[in-house]
Design goal:
It is a single chain. The chain has about 300 residues and is of the alpha/beta class. The protein has helices at about 45-50, 80-90, 105-115, 140-155, 160-175, 185-195, 195-205, 210-220, 240-260, 270-275, 275-295, and strands spanning about 5-15, 15-25, 30-35, 55-60, 100-105, 120-125, 230-235, 260-265. The chain has 11 helices and 8 strands. An 8-stranded mixed beta sheet has the order 1-2-4-3-5-6-7-8, with helices on both faces. Strand 1 (about 5-15) and strand 2 (about 15-25) form a beta hairpin. Keywords: Hydrolase. This is Alpha/beta hydrolase. GO terms for molecular function: hydrolase activity. InterPro entries: AB_hydrolase_1, AB_hydrolase_fold, AB_hydrolase_sf, Epox_hydrolase-like.
């Protein structure tokens, strides 16, 4: 699959340089937000398909991930990442309500954006999104955040990050694009996973996960459910397991709570956009069309 339609640019928003991989088209904008440790590389096949179909879309790298500038000392919040999404739309001159696609824990961020800036959002797609009904953390945040930074920096300093980068990528992602990874993409992913700033950003985001879930649940209690087309898509490997069935039920409840449509994408690992880019692109097209009809 060719990625010749994908262009790259950097915009300065909220005090830092944010990298976006972008395709230009004639649709309402589509924003692709990856989960923990994700970058634009995970969306390249979906972006290419959207570009070939004449859609306007971009994948953004959060600070410290991909090719975006790190924000050392900053701790992610749902409200902060929601503001970043809207700020990038503004910086790119995209004012039409956007369809936001959030994978894994980025589901928190895109739902937050729809609740905090409803006039800027025309639809939501939650891809195997994180779901937490009653989140909580045993260790106080004031201890967790310093521990996250110490752990990440120590791993980089002693060489564990360099040694284990490939294994961690394989263990965490597992998904493989339909046409496989070209050698240059493997080299680039290896470079990114070995960056100390990347490891620190990913570790901090992982350690703050419970706080993000609490923040979103509080936001849900004081804001209305987004009045836009919503699709909740759960990944399934097609191998029945008790934990897989439990995960499907959680995703179904999330779809019901948001008043959205539920679907299962199979066979797929957690990184649905890598395993099944055609299906993800089709889901985006459907939400774009429904949002257009609702205008």
């Amino acid at each position: 699959m060719s990625e010749s339609t994908v262009s790259h640019e950097t915009v300065t928003v909220l005090g830092s340089a944010v990298h976006v991989a972008r395709v230009h088209g004639r649709s309402a904008p589509v924003v692709l937000c990856g989960g923990l440790g994700s970058s634009w590389h995970d969306w390249v096949d979906v972006l290419t398909l959207l570009g070939e179909a004449g859609r306007t879309a971009f994948a953004l790298d959060r600070p410290g991930f991909g090719d975006s500038e790190p924000r050392r000392g900053e701790v992610p919040t749902v409200a902060g990442e929601a503001r970043r999404i809207v700020a990038v739309l503004d910086a790119l001159g995209l004012q039409e309500p956007a369809v936001l696609v959030g994978h894994s824990m980025a589901g928190f961020y895109v739902e937050g954006a729809a609740r905090l800036d409803p006039e800027r959002v025309g639809g939501l797609i939650l891809l195997d999104s994180s779901v937490e009904k009653s989140p909580g953390a045993l260790i106080p945040r004031r201890l967790r955040m310093p521990a996250a930074r110490i752990l990440a920096r120590a791993s980089s300093a002693v060489g564990l990050q360099t040694i284990g980068a490939d294994a961690v990528r394989h263990l965490v992602v597992r998904a493989v694009p339909p046409d496989g990874y070209p050698p240059e993409r493997i080299d680039e992913l290896r470079r990114l996973y070995r960056e100390p700033d990347y490891l620190e950003a990913a570790t901090v985001e992982y350690f703050v996960y419970a706080d993000l879930a609490v923040e979103l649940n509080r936001l849900r209690r004081r804001t209305p459910t987004p009045d836009v087309p919503v699709v909740v898509a759960a990944a399934h490997t097609s191998h029945p397991t008790p934990w897989g069935a439990r995960w499907i039920r959680k995703q179904q409840r999330l779809a019901s709570y948001l008043g959205g449509r539920f679907t299962v994408i199979a066979p797929s690992h957690h990184h649905v956009m890598i395993d099944q880019p055609v299906v993800v692109a089709q889901a985006i097209d459907e939400v774009l069309e429904e949002a257009r009809r609702r205008k």
